[in-house]
User: Which sequence fits this backbone?
């Protein structure tokens, strides 16, 4: 028995020594942790952190990425257990609200983060609580929804990037006649169908004007403009691949990447992935063209996340320092260049040609309706439109039934619809 | 003499020894099963703000599950899919499992190879099998699509997972393929345990193969049928990984593959791109799933015990 005890104590001492390593210099440093769902961006954030550490020798930051699908659950458990990181990469809109309202996050103001002055109200909307109006994060990146097209196929078929919606439809028809699958998109992955509606919809429901009316309760989802927008998405089904109802996101991407389809309706985030998967793929993007030439070109955008601070952090001062660093032009430009994302700092110059296109000031940005306005309570607008569109595209429901179900679901909690 | 002297000491420490061996299992069961069960029960009786427990609301969350949109539609829909899982498993998986087990017990040619072949898919991880079968079902280049094309039946080929009519059954078929080896082996073991003299005397009396099976073998393997039925029942109510790996958390398309398991997970923890967590309703649903398992398991055990035959 004594022998076992001695072995156990020796083991414990060895273990203690193993973790007790380090220099006195590192012991003096304030150690911050930074949690995120961006597992694929580890090298980029580590490089960014080393830039910060070079400027702030007294602080070290450790990047802690978690699996995307589990991130929200992990955050919830960490906050409750008191082990959440000092700096939190927050998801936008309804997804950060669940942590802001119980008081886990430090409200950011122009006093503690003066750099917030630089950001527009729309940029901060993704990290502004709809309950208390406070800002809880410095914007990370915004996403835009676009149409990818295979330039080699366009050249082969003698097509040009369309200037109107009718031209786009005739390009799809030309591809179909030439035996090329016009669209790579399918409907099996719910959120991708919502993305399609975000690309096609604004031209049909009328952009910001409709969104403002919707948010204020002047109109609702049964509005014929919204119904027409969903019907426009459904009108694309003849151009989708065979068995499109059973094609998931990755399978859709593969069709476009491997030159098997002429177009892909998706987010701007796809560009770098497409290029890395098939360096020989010749592709470009265009924003969904307006119904009439000369009309405003509308593009759905949304904030993809922000950088927030754990209110219970033992090193709040240093955490604020790091978040201020993230909010500055240098870090935002670095993230834009390295990750190929559109950051919201006004002085950042996008380096990629795709980002330049979606940053064109002549474009009219429209909020990505369900995420921006209706993903705060259950049933979320996103879950309703995703499943509704799946049923519409497969012919199971008609558009009237889809808009009625969306309206019924959102009206459960959305006060302006309860009048 | 020495052993008699040590006996009181052994008795004195016996309790501690038993505790020593039982403790690890007890701790794991308590932490992983018993505590979450009671925590869910408690959580289901409160309102929640995000992940913070708020006021006591009694059975309000349970009421919401059956009266409030969308839960009043999602729960019956998911329950119906769980029933599809149960009946398909009972009618196809277990009936064929019994048939295969019976054939193997008759020592047909190559039965040792078949025994291993049948059991092999059971050993494969469900997530890997799910992803593999998702590729088989791919409407563009999947194995089933190609087989239909080769047979000149391309017009009958379709998006098996994308069609609301076929999606759940497509996943069930995958699960049957993977799991049929288990009931086969259980029934085989039970059939092999029947005393040979019973069967021999029946043969000598001129009983037909069917008569021997229905009057002798079947009643004697009732305990195994009970075990398989209870496991099928629990498995069908808890089904999650199969749907998750092939249709995701949202029960695509349009909740056609949704089960109580995916609905619970989506409600309690949210789904990355569509829903946000509602811990209160999720907890209430988990309590219902637990009681469904308990009630149906006890009912089937009681039912089968009354049918048991002893030699």
Assistant:
């Amino acid at each position: 028995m004594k022998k076992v005890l001695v072995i156990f104590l020796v083991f414990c001492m060895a273990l203690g020594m193993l973790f007790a390593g380090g220099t006195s210099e590192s012991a003096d440093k304030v150690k911050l942790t930074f949690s995120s769902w961006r597992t694929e961006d580890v090298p980029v954030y580590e490089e960014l952190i080393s830039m910060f550490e070079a400027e702030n020798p007294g602080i070290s930051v450790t990047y802690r990425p978690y699996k995307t699908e589990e991130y929200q659950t992990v955050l919830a458990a960490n906050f409750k257990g008191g082990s959440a990181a000092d700096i939190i990469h927050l998801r936008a809109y309804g997804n950060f609200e669940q942590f802001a309202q119980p008081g886990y996050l430090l409200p950011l103001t122009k006093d503690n983060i003066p750099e917030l002055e630089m950001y527009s109200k729309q940029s901060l909307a993704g990290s502004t609580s709809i309950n208390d109006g406070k800002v809880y994060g410095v914007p990370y990146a915004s996403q835009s929804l676009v149409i990818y097209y295979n330039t080699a196929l366009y050249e082969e078929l003698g097509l040009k990037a369309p200037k109107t919606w009718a031209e786009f439809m005739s390009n799809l028809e030309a591809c179909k006649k030439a035996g090329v699958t016009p669209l790579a998109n399918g409907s099996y992955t719910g959120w991708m169908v919502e993305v399609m509606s975000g690309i096609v919809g604004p031209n049909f429901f009328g952009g910001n004007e409709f969104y403002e009316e919707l948010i204020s309760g002047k109109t609702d989802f049964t509005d014929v403009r919204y119904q027409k927008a969903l019907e426009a998405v459904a009108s694309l089904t003849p151009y989708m691949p065979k068995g499109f109802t059973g094609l998931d996101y990755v399978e859709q991407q593969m069709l476009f990447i491997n030159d098997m389809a002429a177009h892909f309706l998706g987010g701007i985030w796809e560009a770098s992935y497409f290029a890395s998967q098939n360096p020989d793929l010749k592709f470009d993007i265009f924003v969904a063209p307006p119904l009439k030439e000369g009309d405003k070109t509308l593009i759905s955008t949304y904030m993809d996340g922000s950088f927030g601070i754990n209110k219970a952090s033992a090193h709040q001062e240093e955490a604020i320092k790091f978040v201020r660093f993230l909010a500055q032009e240098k870090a935002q430009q670095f993230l834009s260049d390295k990750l190929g994302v559109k950051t919201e700092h006004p002085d950042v110059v996008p380096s990629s040609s795709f980002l330049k296109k979606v940053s064109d000031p002549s474009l009219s940005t429209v909020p990505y309706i369900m995420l921006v306005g209706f993903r705060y309570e259950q049933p979320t607008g996103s879950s309703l439109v995703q499943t509704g569109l799946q049923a519409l595209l497969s012919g199971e429901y008609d558009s009237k039934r889809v808009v009625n179900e969306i309206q019924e679901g959102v009206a459960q909690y959305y006060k302006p619809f309860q009048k | 003499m020495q052993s008699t002297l040590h006996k009181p000491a052994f008795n004195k420490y016996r309790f501690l020894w038993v505790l020593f061996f039982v403790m690890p299992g007890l701790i794991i069961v308590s932490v992983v099963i018993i505590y979450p069960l009671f925590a869910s029960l408690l959580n289901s009786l409160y309102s929640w703000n995000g992940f913070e427990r708020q006021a006591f609301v009694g059975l309000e969350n349970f009421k919401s599950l059956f009266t409030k949109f969308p839960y009043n539609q999602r729960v019956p829909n998911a329950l119906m899919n769980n029933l599809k899982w149960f009946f398909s498993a009972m009618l196809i998986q277990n009936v064929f499992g019994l048939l295969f087990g019976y054939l193997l017990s008759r020592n047909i040619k190559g039965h040792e190879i078949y025994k291993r072949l049948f059991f092999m898919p059971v050993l494969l991880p469900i997530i890997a099998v799910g992803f593999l079968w998702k590729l088989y079902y791919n409407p563009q280049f999947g194995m089933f699509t190609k087989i239909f094309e080769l047979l000149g039946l391309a017009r009958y080929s379709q998006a098996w997972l994308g069609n609301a009519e076929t999606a759940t059954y497509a996943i069930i078929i995958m699960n049957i393929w993977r799991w049929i080896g288990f009931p086969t082996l259980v029934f085989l073991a039970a059939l092999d345990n029947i005393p040979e003299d019973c069967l021999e005397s029946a043969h000598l009396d001129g009983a037909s193969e069917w008569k021997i099976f229905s009057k002798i073998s079947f009643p004697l393997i009732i305990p195994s049928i009970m075990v398989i039925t209870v496991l099928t029942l629990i498995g069908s109510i808890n089904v999650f990984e199969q749907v998750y790996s092939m249709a995701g958390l949202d029960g695509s398309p349009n909740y056609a593959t949704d089960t109580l398991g995916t609905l619970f997970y989506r409600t309690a923890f949210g789904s990355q791109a569509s829903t946000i967590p509602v811990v209160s309703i999720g907890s209430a649903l988990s309590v219902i799933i637990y009681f469904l398992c308990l009630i149906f398991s006890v009912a089937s055990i009681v039912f089968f015990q009354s049918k048991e035959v002893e030699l």
Observations:
- The beta strands of chain A are 30-36, 59-65, 87-90, 138-150, 181-183, 261-267, 283-286, 298-309, 364-367.
- The domain at 143-301+361-417 of chain A is CATH 3.40.190.10 (D-Maltodextrin-Binding Protein; domain 2).
- Chain A touches chain B through 51 residues (CB under 8 Å).
